[in-house]
Amino acid sequence: MGGGNAQKSKMAREKNLEKQKAAAKGSQLDSNKKAMTIQCKVCMQTFICTTTEVKCREHAEAKHPKSDLYTCFPHLKK
User: Cys staple from 38: which of 11, 23, 47, 70, with CB 3.0 to 4.6 Å?
Assistant: First the structure.
């Protein structure tokens, strides 16, 4: 049997409404920018807040071999 034009219009409206709700949530990029809270004090490169000490150590050794880890990332001092 099949639907008439009214049913097709209703389905199209519902589909568009779902798309608009999904678009209203926004992009994850804005949240990621706000989460970039760890910063290397030598080169000012930022890292996301979930970055581990291992990643910070890798950055310091690769990018700043003459500086120690705590010069780049003073928040790691205990």
Answer: 47
Distance, in Å, from the CA atom of 74 to the CA atom of 21, rounded to the nearest integer, reads 43
**How many other CB atoms are found less than 10 A from the CB of residue 68?**
11
Q: Does residue 13 lie within any of the structural domains?
A: yes
Helix (H, G, I), strand (E, B) or coil at 20: helix
- Rounded to whole angstroms, the Cα distance separating 50 from 77 reads 17
Distance CA 14, CA 11 (A): 5
Q: Which helix (H) or strand (E) holds 38?
A: strand 38-39
State pTM to two decimals.
0.60
4-44 per-position pLDDT tens digit: 788 889 999 999 888 887 766 667 788 888 889 999 999 99
Domain holding 67, by residue range, is 35-77
